[in-house]
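yo, Probable RNA 2'-phosphotransferase is done. seq:
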Amino acid sequence: MNEDNFEKLSKEVSYALRHAPREYKLELDKEGWVPVKQLISSLKEVRHWDSLTESDLREMISKSQKKRHEIVNNKIRALYGHSTPTKITKEEACPPKYLYHGTSPESYKEIMVKGLLPMNRQYVHLSEDINTANLVGSRKTDTPIILSIDTYAAREEGVKFYHGNDQVWLADSVPSKCISVVDEFNQEK
Ligand code: HQG
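structure:
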């Protein structure tokens, strides 16, 4: 499989496991898992990935710059990003004191009023470092605003945090009083 196909495969697997399992005749369990064999036969049948093997999937996961999927005990799941109607159960975990979120100037105004909300996904997505948050925000705008989340204050407010992968943390929502703008970063531009 060439590089372009690995990227195409990663996008398709994300689409199937995060947003549209039914389109692929798949059913996610409570934690978002499906049997690897089922995903492969569905991708073959529904999307004509005719020669797809489990080792292609494993290679796709290991080559990807972001750890979006994992395979454990013959099952595969997306680690974050879900928008399916039934909320995936994630394990609560203790994040570092600060997490970051990159967003657009328009959304920033709303966020400072309503807090961070999951919008079209099941969870709010947060980054462990400022550079990653900047990349996430840059998907939406040329002038991202980087927000810092005081997770200790948020936990005192009852916010639960969940582990996505080594860079990505999830939360149900974050009140605006626990959010501030990373000024140094935004002034550098
Ligand atoms: C904004 C990618 C108005 C929020 C990335 C964001 C990430 C609000 C947008 C992952 C709001 C949702 C997720 C409020 C939040 N009012 N706007 N109250 N609260 N927003 O794409 O975090 O490459 O669903 O700021 O790397 O940008 O796909 O979330 O701009 O980890 O693996 O609503 O997706 O990963 O946008 O990105 P998204 P996100 P992958």
